[in-house]
Design goal:
This protein is an alpha+beta fold. Helices cover 32% and strands 24% of the residues. The protein has a six-stranded antiparallel sheet, covered by helices on one side. The two termini are 30 Å apart. The N terminus is likely disordered.
Length: 157
Amino acid sequence: MVPEAQLSGKACPARWTCSSLPSSTAWSRDRPSEVCASIGGMPCDIADARELAGQLDGAAMVELLHYTKLEVAGRTFGYLWEPTCTIGLRQTIAEQQALVAERPEVFEVQFTAYGYGWVVAHLEGVERDELAELVFEAWRLTASAELLESRGERLPV
């Protein structure tokens, strides 16, 4: 468990700062949805994102100090930041721009590299079926041809 003192007042890589978490909140990987729910109501949470990514062929979650990296065959297709209830996903540049233009309160540009536009999604603004499409697309843009062929267009559910 992360002590409150380590969360309070530190800047997070999203629109909130950790000081916006309730002072009584002690964050833990075992109960991230409680923290996310305390920030605002959410149609989706970190557990949904983990479950959807876990359904994809060859997907792995690498737990790091401040975030979880989503990989397929050693290549990154996403990042989860549990304290801020956000997910960063690989998308096409056109999709990145469309998402941010359509709903800037939910999506923000993370960065652009190697022909891809990474986008951060605030999970409180994303429904599960939309998150499934976004996670699948990020995986699809990263997975090998063999994995793509074996999975086809089956979205996680």
